[in-house]
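Task: sequence design from structure.
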């Protein structure tokens, strides 16, 4: 249910190596906003080191939708593709070393690579995986209790539980920090 979007690492490495002149290495400190809700996405980020979260502001509270770790591609895809206002905020939650590409350069990459089946499939799979991940996350709020969501996250993405601050995890699970603490305490007693 909380699957990690994993692109083919060899193919992704080949793509980035071939078009590395479009990907500029940049470092960002933790809690840096890369894209703010309402802005138009003009960049794509490839994480070499660090962690990024995607969130929205709902009635003054951050609601986390997704986490991205190393070897992940991050962007507000709808905004990037359609030139519309982003519905999400993209923020580093750890110091990050990223490869950053501009929209104009990504268009060149897409024009060149979409004719090559392997690269085209890489992009299509990335888009579908992201869509499926969002869908599964949304369905978990209907099908699972908060404790079940936490256990599923612990089972499927233990690196997130070990690495990410509790208030971000609680937001992702749709509960308060206090509720998450209670769930963890209850499970520790078992």
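Answer:
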């Amino acid at each position: 249910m909380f699957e990690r979007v994993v692109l083919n690492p060899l193919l992704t490495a080949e793509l980035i190596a071939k078009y590395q002149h479009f990907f500029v290495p940049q470092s960002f400190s933790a809690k840096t906003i890369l894209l703010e809700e309402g802005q138009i996405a003009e960049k794509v980020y490839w994480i070499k080191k660090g962690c990024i979260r995607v969130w929205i502001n709902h009635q003054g509270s951050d609601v986390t939708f997704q986490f991205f770790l190393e070897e992940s591609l991050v962007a507000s895809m709808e905004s990037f593709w359609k030139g519309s206002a982003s519905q999400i905020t993209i923020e580093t939650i750890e110091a990050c070393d990223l490869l950053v590409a501009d929209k104009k350069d990504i268009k060149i990459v897409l024009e060149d690579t979409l004719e090559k089946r392997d690269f085209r499939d890489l992009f299509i799979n990335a888009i579908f995986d992201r869509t499926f991940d969002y869908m599964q996350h949304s369905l978990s709020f209907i099908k699972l209790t908060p404790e079940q969501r936490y256990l599923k996250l612990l089972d499927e993405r233990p690196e997130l539980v070990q690495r990410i601050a509790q208030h971000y995890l609680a937001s992702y699970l749709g509960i308060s920090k206090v509720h998450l603490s209670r769930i963890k305490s209850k499970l520790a007693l078992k």
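Helices lie at 9-18, 77-82, 103-113, 117-143, 146-156, 158-163, 166-173, 177-189.
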